[in-house]
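Long-time lurker. I teach an intro course on protein structure, and each term I like to show students one example going from raw sequence to a predicted 3D structure in token notation. This year I'd like something fresh instead of my usual example. Would anyone be willing to generate the tokens for the chain below so I can use it in lecture? Attribution to the forum is fine with me.
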Amino acid sequence: MNKTPSSSRVHIGFFGRRNAGKSSLVNAVTGQELAIVSEMKGTTTDPVYKAMELLPLGPVVIIDTPGIDDEGALGELRVLKAKQALNKTDVAVLVADASAVDARAGTEEKAERELIKLFQEKQTPFIIAYNKSDIADRSVLDVLEKVKAESHSICVSAKNKTNIDALKEKIATLAKMEEPKTRLVGDLISPSDFVALVVPIDKAAPKGRLILPQQQTIRDILEADGTAIVVREYELRETLTHLGKKPRLVITDSQVFDKVSADTPPDIPLTSFSILFARYNGLLAVAVDGVQTLGALKDNDVVLICEGCTHHRQCDDIGTVKLPRWIRNHTGKRLEFTFTSGGDFPLDLSPYKLIVHCGGCMLNNREMRYRQKCAVDQKKPITNYGVLIAYIQGILKRCVAVFPAFRDIAC
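-- Reply from a regular --
Happy to contribute to a lecture. Here you go:
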């Protein structure tokens, strides 16, 4: 069974009006009955997410969304859900009904034009798939063939499986253009380098497993031909003494920054898993700027703490217990805290004076960039768990100095 995390998979979203054949096309592209198909309008009432393997791409998440033209109060909520799904979509497929196209009036309906505008605003690469080409008029197909030569579009038939492979090739081409250019840690080390990973046993992790950021960091070190040495926080000092070779880098869980910083000699670079993910997701510069506003918080200000996963909360949970306690102690202010988890993220950030986000290992790169953009657009400072904890501990400058672009930063 493929264990690639959803955050590392290409997210492919299918959007369009009701009865355009989105679910039928999803089934045709995947070769599976992933989505319920019906002649009744509005069969898909919520976005459906399915992790799977899709050739020629590999690990993907397929997103089947409600009709963008849904009506009524409930329909508006469904449309909102569809638009929110776009925030995590790497490649969008706009499914249009070729059999409903009027060759004289143009090839796109109002709802489809609005979707295209939304794709462009969010800089989401997209393809227009004119479905039901098997029952479309010849004159319409002639018009669509001319359009295809000028844009990213294709005529398909989910029913007859016409041009399905060609559609997948187009999706793959756009997806490869969207791949993140930054590595977690592999670009910071050389072959044969030692990297010490400090891994407390996380009670929130499934029994017998490391948490995802630790797994992904180890994999990236191995792919860079480095050597990963994994230790508990109370084993680091002795390990460094007996290693015989100075590690290129020490990476720790942010929750034990104080002890690990004290046990790591100043000439050995130090950072955390959370800070690595902030850089990987393009959040680090904004997070370093955002944490500087911590001292400006006042009594009764509201801080938003966001986690990208929905793990079982422990009695001393990092997001809901430790961070609020550390922030209150550092600022000396009577602050209020609001918490979100999983896919929830407020559209309106006006109530908050600071946003503190987790590393985002369970969210894909595009959604993390979307959340960052929301904060920046609404002029709200946003930072990251690891950056915040390092700042409070007085070691942020040291922990970001491992990245060349941050070596001269003032913290």
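Some talking points for your students: The mean pLDDT is 87. The chain has three domains: 6-177, 186-276, 283-393.
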